[in-house]
Amino acid sequence: MADLYDLLTNPNVRAALKQAWSESQPGASRAHEEGGFIVERTSGEMRVVRWPRGSGRTIEVPPHHGCQVAGMDIVASFHTHPNVGADFLQEPSETDRRAVRDDPDLKGAEYAGELVISAALVYGVTPFGRVVELGSTEDMLL
Ligand SMILES: [Zn+2]
After folding, report:
1. d(Cα 23, Cα 17) in Å, to the nearest integer?
2. How far is the CA of 114 from the centre of ligand 1 (A)?
């Protein structure tokens, strides 16, 4: 299984997460969720396949039968929580945790879980739906 923390040190992954975070317009009135799958090519190279743009506080996960997309194994998924302020949950929600834990198509041998990027922290949701804090967003992505 891939490791969420290790994935954050991969330059391709970091660049793609940073771009998705910036496109989600954190803190702006037009803030909206962005997300994607982190996949591994047969060459071992990591790539990000983005999901269609989400709304203010939700995002739809496109089909990913057998924990694959475009024939590549999904090693992790991610989405952003760009809304800042006391009215918004920064950490992964109960729905986020269930979406990972209860998705039969996110049970591939390589699947490490879902990253949730908020303004302050990068969180991980393990395949069993447990939330972990991986570190500061500024240190890990910006
Ligand atoms: Zn969420």
Report:
1. 10
2. 10
Q: Give me the pLDDT at residue 6, please.
A: 93
Report CA(38)–ligand 1 centroid distance (Å).
Answer: 17
Ligand 1 centroid to 131 CA: how many Å? 12
Q: Which residue has the higher pLDDT, 80 or 140?
A: 80
Going from the Cα of 109 to the center of ligand 1, the distance in angstroms, rounded, reads: 23
Q: How far is the CA of 110 from the centre of ligand 1 (A)?
A: 22
Domains of the chain: 4-140 (3.40.140)
> How far is residue 83 CA from its own chain's centroid?
16
Beta-carbon neighbour count of residue 48 at 10 Å? 19
Looking at the whole model, is its pTM more than 0.85? yes
Residue 98 has pLDDT above 80, yes or no: yes
